[in-house]
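Justification of computing resources. Each target in the renewal requires a structure prediction run like the one illustrated here; the chain below, 98 residues long, is used simply to show the kind of job we budget for.
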Amino acid sequence: MLYIIINKAPYFKLHKSSFSISIILSLFFIFFGVGNFFGLLIKTTSYQIQYLFVILLLSEVISYFNVRLQNSKIFYYLNICKRGFLIGIFVEAFKVGS
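Resulting structure tokens:
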């Protein structure tokens, strides 16, 4: 049911039909949880800036290779993981700020 709804919405169209929506959603939510957990743990360390710099650098490298290699499934899935992880960190930072 969810798959049909997502496929009917024009802004949720998948670029290639070989990608599975269940894999995409599971990767996103797993890495969302990992990002949330990372956001909790990073508050207790004194190397916060260095860790965040490395995460952002890794995120930009994934984005660069995703753009360069358009036909690569692995970088498409890594991009999904990156998005979930960064949104998880953002949500954790928002929870701490409020």
